Amino acid sequence: MASSSSPMLSCLRFPEPPTHTSLQEARRELATQQKSAQDLDNKIQDAEDHLARLIHESKCAIRQMVQEKETLEKDMAQMRAYISPIKRLPHELLRHIFYMNFEDYPCCAWVLAAVCKLWRRLALSMPRIWSKIRLVTTQDSSADIIRLWLERSGVNTPLDIEIFLKSSNPQSSSNSRRRRASSSPVGDGWPTPWPEAAWMPPPPPPPAGGPPPPITAYVDFAAHGGTVIPLALPAQAFDPLVGIPVTTERSTSTSPLTKTRASMHWGYIAFYYLTEQMHRWERFVFRFDKKFASIAALKNVTGDAPMLKEFEVSCAEPAFAGDWTWLPCAKPNTTHHIPELHSLTLQYVPFKWSAPMLSNLRNLSLRTLPTTQIALDRILYMISQSPALESLSLHFSAVNSAVLPLMPTALQHLHSFSIGGHYLLNTLVDSLSLPNLQSLTIDVDGRDPVEDTIANLVARSNSPPLTTLSLAYATNSGSASGIYYATGSMIASWHFLRELDHLRTLQVGGISFETFLTSLTFPDDENGQEKWLCPNLTTLAMRGCHTHGEGVSKLVHMIEARNPDTAAGHTAVAANGVVPTRVKRLEVHECVTTGLDVMTWLQTRVDEVVCSEPAFDR
């Protein structure tokens, strides 16, 4: 590089110290350098501007190509869809696929109708896939979804209806707007087969210009048949994060008074739509967790139902109401046509013991209101009106003594019998003969020993093949049954188990822990037995039993006797040639504190062990 182009070398040309002449020359040199620097700045700016224009033009070209590619990909996707095998499926075959899906997922129609225009047209033209109504809703929700469902199910298709009305739980305003009670799990303590709901992704959005998606959210009840249950929502919004439909208020400007009035009419609107289709009911199940404002709408459930096979109206808590004119309260001379009805469940709702609906049944389950009092002979009359009963469950918290003599009643086909409530029901059991009984649950007020009742029933029934026995097990689980004394607490002796050799499952509550376990160990002088009790027992459950300090040792001794250490070559001791079956499942709830070491030992002897400590030890 030339010395004139280097600032450092240029400075070296001037003398030190500067003279007047050298200063003038240096000033001229500096001016020349400043002009050169300005020229270079201009060239750099021009080059940068040119580069920016090139980048901008390139980006515009790239964006244009990306848009053209996206358009082409959409066209290609539509073309692939057009030539895809499913497009060549005949509509009849696609309908058959829809029907197959409907068998496993009763509410699939809502999803199928939201896929595309073709599928929506097909789904709406198939009333059968809309014939199973599975709805979890609240009074704040619109009842029009029921109308829509019924309209799509056609005019002649039999209806299978399950509706669960949940109470609206007050929450903070922000939480209430985002997650209403209708999208929460089923209420606590509710005896329903529906498990807790889990949100599922919504169906894909409809094509542009297509019909809107159904105003419905979906919850998965896969644990019980894989049912997808739509939730009726008052309005629809979408979570901006996950795209899940969430419940909002009917209107942000709606006053609380207007909402209250709307909630008061939900039942009347819903049951107006439902009762208009009673002639198509094949199965009707309506459950609610507490009394609601429009509960009187149930009075409209009256008239002919020629297809009805199963009917259930249940409340999780007593819903006090006056006399109703609905089917379960009909007069004996009423001529409602319900020839196919075989299953009836009424829980905490009014009914009349003489209603024609309570006859010729195969499955009957009744739980009365605390204010309902029925004489024993009338209860027996209800039972005798259905001689072909296969399953019977009765819970009467208030019972009057019999007015007429109790006649012996034999139910030849009954295999499941559950009775609970007032202590006078023991007298009712003494009038029954159940030769094919397989499951027995007794949960009555234990003022008198119940072992004689069971022993006499077994003797009268000629030793039925009883495989499951439950005594006061529900009472001691904390359920509100209205019982004063647990059945198990009044059991003085377990010798009645000697006649139950077929028993495989035994559940007891409120008993003397040590006495019970001693009776199940090897027969000897201590328990006064000559043979094993319940030699085929595989499941044993105890709840709320009272102990006197030796409970854990008695439990270990019983398991040691029935489940010996086979790895060490030990076997159960035979008594009268009988060796007991090993216990495969053991449940001990709120009886004793086992401790980690005992729990570990139990798990080495029993396949399944479930234990919970008493409340005072927690």
From TrEMBL:
For the region Disordered, what residue ranges are annotated? 169-212
**Keyword Thylakoid on entry:** no
**Gene3D superfamilies per the UniProt record, alphabetical:** 1.20.1280.50, Ribonuclease Inhibitor
Give start-end positions of Pro residues composition bias.
200-212
Q: Which residues form a coiled coil?
A: 23-82
In which domain of life is the source organism classified?
Eukaryota
Ranges where the F-box domain occurs:
87-134
Concerning Pfam families, the annotation shows:
F-box-like (PF12937)
* UniProtKB keywords: Coiled coil
- Listed SUPFAM superfamilies: F-box domain (SSF81383), RNI-like (SSF52047)
Q: Which InterPro entries match?
A: F-box-like_dom_sf (IPR036047), F-box_dom (IPR001810), LRR_dom_sf (IPR032675)
Name of the protein: F-box domain-containing protein
